[in-house]
Amino acid sequence: MPEQRKYNVLFLCTHNSARSILAEGALNEFAGDRFVGFSAGSHPGKGPNPFALDLLRSQNISTEGMRSKSWDEFAVDGAPQIDFIFTVCDDAAGEVCPIWPGHPAKAHWGVPDPSRVEGTDEEKRKAFLQAFIQLRKRIELFTNLPFEKLDRIAVQQEMQSIGSSLREKGE
Q1: Is 34 a catalytic residue?
Q2: Residue 55, CB-side half-sphere exposure with 13 Å CA sphere
Q3: pTM confidence score
Q4: Would you state the pLDDT for residue 168?
Q5: Core-most of 20, 76, 91, 165, by most CB within 10 Å?
Q6: 168 included as an active-site residue
Q7: Hey, how many other C-beta atoms are within 10 angstroms of the C-beta on 22?
Q8: First vs last Cα of the chain: how many Å apart?
Q9: Is 149 a known active-site residue?
Q10: What is the pLDDT of residues 29-83, one digit of tens each?
Q11: Which residue among the candidates 36, 97, 117, 141 is catalytic per the annotation?
Q12: CB 104 within 8 Å of CB 130
């Protein structure tokens, strides 16, 4: 039986330092046999947030090679062809994105920014964990979609639905 091609998924956030990094790590860990997760930002920061990296490591998720990068890296010749794009912050969702080769399906999965939480390190860790749990739930729902039975429009609708239904439930 021929091996099925893995789907490439890009998670976007403005600085590519927290939520998009968490989503990239979670997808690669929980569905890496069928998906390849990437992350990028419209205005990448100095690097991944240390709380994001610490959380991923605490979940036994590899952080090797993770870095903050521009979304322009994925819109040039030779970049991986992206099948699905998720914006995970409201700022990135409102920005004008590059034209993506292959016209991937897109959805917005807004998650509160844990890096904006002020307080103790414990309070910050808790905010990162909450963001990670929200993203993981959405990723699990997404990766369990019956892609072979859905057309492009149905997949797009399901992607949007996952983000909006969990947001309404406060998850």
Answers
A1: no
A2: 29
A3: 0.91
A4: 47
A5: 20
A6: no
A7: 33
A8: 39
A9: no
A10: 999 999 999 999 988 989 999 999 999 999 999 999 999 999 999 988 899 999 9
A11: 97
A12: no
Give 87's strand partners. Answer: 12, 108
| Cα(114)–Cα(123) distance, integer angstroms | 10
Q: Which is the catalytic residue, given 9, 10, 12, 13?
A: 13
Residue type, 138: R
Place of tokens 């897109």: 106
Look-up: residue for tokens 């998670």?
11
Query: Is residue 136 within 8 Å of residue 26, measured between CB atoms?
Result: yes
DSSP string, 43-93: S--SS--HHHHHHHHHTT---TT----BGGGGSSTTSPPPSEEEE-SHHHH
- Residue 105 host element (H or E): strand 105-108
**What pLDDT does 99 receive?**
65
Q: Alpha-carbon distance 136 to 68, whole Å?
A: 20
Distance CA 139, CA 43 (A): 24
CB atoms within 10 A of CB 30: 16
Which of 49-58, 86-95, 110-119, 144-153 is predicted least confidently? 86-95
Which residue is associated with the tokens 């920005």?
95
The reply to whether CATH 3.40.50.2300 applies to domain 7-161 is yes
Q: What is the pLDDT of residues 8-17, one digit of tens each?
A: 999 999 899 9
